[in-house]
Amino acid sequence: MIVGLDMGGTHVDAVIIEDGRIINTIKKPTNRDNLFESIWNTLEELLKGYDKSKIKRINLSTTVSTNAIVENTTSPVGMIIQSGPGLPQDFLACGEENVFISGYIDHRGTVVENWNHEEIKEAINIFKGKKINSLAVVTKFSIRNPSHELEIKEMIEAENRGNITLGHTMSGKLNFPRRVYTSYLNSAVYDTFNDFSNNIIKSMEKENIKAPVYILKADGGTMSLSTAEEKPVETILSGPAASFMGINAMLSGDEDAILLDIGGTTTDIFFLADGVPLFEPLGIKIDKYKTLVRAIYSLSIGLGGDSSISIKDGKIKIGPKREGVPYAYGGPAPTPTDAMITLGLMEGEKEKAYEIMKSLGKKLNMSAENISNLILDTMANMIKMKVDEVLKEINSQPVYTVKELLYGKTIEPKLINIIGGPAKVLAPILEKKFHLPCYYPDKYEVANAVGAALAKPTTEINMLVDTAKGILTVPELNIYENISKKYTLEDAKKKALELVKESVLSLGAEEDQIEAEITEESSFNMVRGFFTSGKNIRIKAQVKPGLIYDLRGDSID
Amino acid sequence: MIYEVIVLIKAKNRLGLVFFPAFDWAISPTHPEREERLLYTQDQIFEEGIEDIEGIKFYNPIIACKEDIQRVHFCIPDVDSRVTESHLISVGGAIKASQAVMDKEVDKAFALVRPPGHHAQRVVYGDRGFCVVNVEGVMLERIRKEYGPLRVAIVDTDCHHGDGTQDIYWNDKETLFISFHQDGRTLYPGTGFLDEFGGPAAYGYNINIPLPPGTGEEGFLYVLDNVVMPILEEYKPDIIINSAGQDNHYTDPITNMNFTAQGYAKLNDRLNPDIAVLEGGYSIEGALPYVNLGIILAMAGIDYSHVHEPDYDRDRLKQPKDITEYIKQISEIVYSRWKDKEDLRIKEFKGYDQVERTRQIYYDTDRILENQSQNFKICKKCSGLNTIKSQSGEGYRVFAIQIPVDACSKCIDEGYRLYKNPKGNYTHVYLQDRVNDEYHAK
Q1: Residue B428 and residue B398 in contact, taking contact as beta carbons nearer than 8 Å
Q2: Are B408 and B319 in a shared domain?
Q3: Which residue out of B119, B160, B161, B181 is catalytically annotated?
Q4: Do B396 and B327 share a structural domain?
Q5: What is the CATH number of the domain that holds B40?
Q6: pLDDT band (50, 70, 90) for residue B158
């Protein structure tokens, strides 16, 4: 038995899956004032009458951290930032207190100038005075050499018991401003998330549930609760990932594809490249912060079944606002749902829907049926325009080699997979607009919870080997070790695959499910003077998001 | 709670960046022009988060075509034999950067591309000074073709004399070429002296400022403020291109100057180029990451005062007094020659109806020696038909004819007549008709 739960802004959905079949589902409203209770009540009701000892795992997608950030209820953070030469530093100030310190580590991880004890002492006093207990220490190029971050942490820990986020543990990617913001957010939501996880653990003990709990990440993978407690920032914005995984669980796609989740208020757009999710190049943006949190690329537009429709300059305008339920259900404004009901494509109060379409049609001298058709056509056009626009952008991402420029991969969708209320109605229209086959599942209502339930652990590592210095680094795993000067690209690839597998096992993966792969590799001859001094090897490896199993076909009751 | 709203960093000038490090291209594994060259620059650009700055936009190169090359060069025997995909992409990167400016998608653009190009002259037998195709030249002629006539100033800030670009625009008054560089008596390619002043139709519009080894921030900025900027003010170009070599840096392994990342940033801030194109620069760890960052920030109008090398030491890099004095004198001479260029032109060419320019050109990278003689007709109606006779050790005997873009009908006719019946025994004859944008070879 696997339990999946997705907490959205308005609803909590949960499912129990056993032997590839959904055996129970539930949908409850979200209580924004008590997110833990929303989850726990939903779980209790879902599991009533089931043997709790048979639960193998519980996968949760929660908005606990996201809400805290968006609603400004995070803890105050004291930031220690070492920015060295480069861009001005004031724009990095994101904490309650920001202390900029001296010292510098360069792009190869060489310590150019040491940090200063006095400055840290002063920072500690400032934070103490303001009773700030959540701290973050971030230095430029710390992923190349984390020694300053580690040493400073050690000094602070002698006096302060709060949580300290170190920049290099957030991601192995280069981008100092994002490292600063990501570290800040991690410390800012640390208490919020840890309260939440403590509640979960206590309640599970009380109910005698022994199954491990996993938390969904924005990249479509899961992590153990204890990892999430250390890196709560990874739990932000997992909703779109749940929806993405849900679509994938229900509909197949092994090639380039467009994935759409058309809801009441918004349409979420995703892409598959050869069946693998397309990721944000660096990380997701939350509120005003660009982060290094790995995430599935998703784009949300204000267009859904309940979007309000108006006529502007003789043209139909749909969304981006939702003013309430569709007119046919007593709402204030006409919506695409009303158009679908009018055309008999959806169940509902046909008389009311017809009435509003007729009055809307009058403004353009059209019949209720004609304007209904035009509304659906406009909706499909809006989706097509947005998809084309972002595809163009995605396909012009910078490349850095002659080979990639000449023969690089571009995404050319071969099919569209859609879920959501209007999916069935819009599929034939979208099929014509895109000239691509469109698929939708019979039932989609709990797709997000299914996606959460079936998600597997994922991980990504960025390895750098500098044989001139004789070091191998993997910031994500806190590995900074000495290697032989003869270390080769092949050695590095082998090691990277081993490490990424090990790492994902520790996150709760099962041996037979692991699909580890090298996603980027390069090896540069380093020449100093007239002699080759070493090799600079760079490798990215990942375990990509996947499903424990898919529910494709008619396995959904 | 979130105490402070973060101030987003924003570019004052919208800046287009073509960053194409060509990580899979090298002249040879240990050559300065190797895969590793822009690796640490990329690290720095990524780590600084340049791609997240509002107003900075990255572009991929387009791939230049054969016609683009033939508009500028005579490749011997033909384009395909001398020019590789890598060259077409490097040039394509510069073209993309300039198109973004011309289309007003951005205010300025910087093409960080390789291989470089400023040593590539009109005739191309192979690689010299790491260059085969003149990146700025091919870029500029393509945008002139696409967007119409432009009055352009190219300022070459590479440590080596931009002899290729000088050769291409030698007789073109619509393209002012200014190069300041380490004195040719002390560095490759051994040219770039004051008396290399342009052809008869553009005398005075090719300006060289040879600088002594050891020139530092003070000297470069003095030349900029006292020679380059006043000349640009008088010339009034539509666009300014910086041929942005970075080998004047104090850590460069193959030159002897003392310029800095701060200096390069200030130079670009004051020069205010519309387009910059990377040329040389081989201190790949100690200089390029910081110099490129400085240029990017200066062009985008972002505070660059914190950009400096980790080992930067102002006192150690202070320019000696005698060098400062020497540079002042050179600057005075160059500027007064610019002022007197009309008189100097009359003195130089009075009574002539054509000018010969005979040179030996050495292709250091490919070890080819070329003997070349260029002939410029002095025409009252246009800048005049010009021809090149060239031979190399490989047995080529070449006759190349250029009909310049402003050619009069008489010069056009004569160009075609010469192409039909060249006087002499040649293995290859070429005609570059810039009026009709045509290229012929036989």
Answers
A1: yes
A2: no
A3: B119
A4: no
A5: 3.40.800.20
A6: very high
In chain A, what residues touch B306 (CB-CB under 8 Å)? Answer: 83, 85-89
Cβ count near A473 (within 10 Å): 24
Q: DSSP class of residue A152? A: H
Strands B123-124 and B74-75, by their bridges, are parallel
Best interface-test mutation with A: which of B47, B251, B311 has the largest number of A CBs within 10 A? B47
Domain count, chain B: 2
Residue B347: inside a domain: no
Kindly state whether residues B93 and B233 are assigned to the same domain.
yes
Q: Which residues of chain B are within 8 Å of residue A406 when distances are taken between CB atoms?
A: 63, 85
- Closest CB from A93, A113, A177 relative to B4: A93
Radius of gyration of chain B, Cα coordinates, nearest whole angstrom: 21
Nearest to A106 among B23, B308, B310 (CB): B310
Q: Which CATH class is domain A252-439?
A: alpha beta
The residue in chain A having the minimum alpha-carbon distance to the alpha carbon of residue B312 is: A85
Domain limits at B363? 352-441
Q: Is B324 on the interface with A (CB under 8 A)?
A: no
Counting DSSP H helices and E strands in chain A, the numbers are: 15, 27
Decide if B428 is catalytic: no
φ, ψ at A349 (rounded to 5°): -70, 90
Confidence at residue A4, expressed as pLDDT on a 0 to 100 scale: 95
C-alpha torsion sign, points A135, A140, A142, A148: negative
B63/A contact by beta carbon, under 8 A: yes
| Residue-level pLDDT, tens digit, chain A, 557 residues | 999 999 887 789 999 999 888 999 999 988 888 889 999 999 999 999 999 999 999 999 998 999 899 888 999 999 999 999 999 999 999 999 999 999 999 999 999 999 999 999 999 999 999 999 999 999 999 999 999 999 999 999 988 778 999 999 999 999 999 999 999 999 999 999 999 999 999 999 988 899 999 999 999 999 999 999 999 999 999 999 999 999 999 998 889 999 999 988 899 999 999 988 999 999 999 999 999 999 999 999 999 999 999 999 989 999 899 898 999 999 999 999 999 999 999 998 999 999 999 999 999 999 999 999 999 999 999 999 999 999 999 999 999 999 999 988 899 999 999 998 899 999 999 999 999 999 998 878 888 999 999 999 999 999 999 999 999 999 999 999 999 999 999 999 999 999 999 999 888 888 777 889 999 999 999 988 778 889 999 999 999 888 887 777 544 43
Q: Let me know if A557 is exposed, middle or buried by CB neighbors in 10 A (0-12, 13-18, 19+).
A: exposed
Does residue B254 sit in the same domain as residue B379? Answer: no
Q: Are residues B300 and B248 both part of a single domain?
A: yes
Given strand A21-29, what is the order of strands in its sheet?
A21-29, A11-18, A2-7, A57-61, A213-216, A222-224
The minimum CA-CA distance between B402 and chain A, rounded to whole Å, is 33
The answer to whether B65 and B103 have CB atoms below 8 angstroms apart is no
Peptide bond into B320 cis (omega under 30): no
Examine the domain organization and report whether B284 and B419 are in the same domain: no
User: First CA to last CA across chain A, in angstroms?
Assistant: 16
Structural domain contains residue B5: no
B273 with B360, same domain? no
B313 in contact with A, Cβ within 8 Å? no
Q: Do B44 and A530 touch (CB under 8 A)?
A: no
CATH homologous superfamily of A1-73+189-250+441-455: ATPase, nucleotide binding domain (3.30.420.40)
pLDDT at B116 over 90: yes
- The whole-angstrom distance between B174's CA and the closest CA on chain A is 34
Q: Are residues B426 and B299 both part of a single domain?
A: no
The last residue of one of the domains, among B339, B370, B387, is B339
CB spacing of B35 vs A525 below 8 angstroms: yes
- Say whether B293 and A104 touch across the interface (CB within 8 A): no
At A557 the pLDDT is 37
